[in-house]
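Journal club side-thread
Mid-discussion, someone asked how the predicted structure for our own chain would compare to the paper's figures. Pasting it here so we can look after the session.
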Amino acid sequence: QPQGGPVSFSGLTIIASGDQEFDLFTGVTTLPQGGQIVSQEHGLTLVGSTISYREGDFIEATGVTVTTDFATASADSVRIDLQTGAQLRRGR
């Protein structure tokens, strides 16, 4: 699917940096060129070099930088379970 506008769900806005691929069988959307995920409510921006998500379920990203009003953090990857919270992996 070609690059589109921002997508919103779970109070998050997802902005693709390139193409978006949607898997009809799994319901997973992949942004192979990465993008941004913005939470206005939490004042948080996550930038990833690749991002995959299933609405209402999870977000996974690699090459991650997370910025808030107070700090910036980086990690090789992050998985956000939209039901229980985030898990950073192999932090830098």
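Post-session note: The first strand starts at residue 7 and ends at 9.
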